[in-house]
Amino acid sequence: QVQLVESGGGLVQPGGSLRLSCAGSGFTFRAFGMNWYRQPPEKEREYVASISSGGDTEHHADSVKGRFTISRDNSRNMVYLQMNNLGPDDSAVYYCKGGPRQAYWGQGTQVTVSS
Predict the structure, then answer these.
(1) What is the C-alpha separation between 87 and 42, in angstroms, rounded?
(2) Among 77, 100, 93, 84, which Cα is nearest to 14's?
(3) Biggest alpha carbon distance in the chain?
(4) Which among 60, 56, 78 has a CA at the least distance from the CA of 69?
(5) Where are the alpha helices (DSSP H) in the chain?
């Protein structure tokens, strides 16, 4: 079955960096665009970034543009989110989304930005 598994979250100080990973399985990973979303505490889930199936087209939300970078490695069935210059407003559970019909979500990984 289709699975998306995120990893790489944790506690980081303001101004720090983290790299999130999402491993896809159970589908032809290279055939589908992939996305990152996040859900801050007591807020709705929001879009962060997306990447095309071949990795040649990326899009980032204005709130993260210039600080976050989405990428993928189709040979490893992985999508990544490099997050730099993190601030407290970036604290959230980060989710990977994609697969057939863009219907699948991972379980999420917690990112906490705090001193």
Answers:
(1) 17
(2) 84
(3) 41
(4) 60
(5) none
In the Cβ-directed half-sphere of 32, how many Cα atoms lie within 13 Å?
22
- Tokens 């598994």 label which residue? 5
Which residue has 């970036």 as its token pair? 90
Angle (CA) 53 56 61, round 5°: 85
Give dist(CA 38, CA 105) in Å, integer.
Answer: 11
Dump pLDDT digits (tens) for 39-79: 999 999 999 999 999 999 999 999 999 999 999 999 999 99
Amino acid at 103: A
CA neighbor of 82 nearest in space, from 46, 53, 58, 107: 58
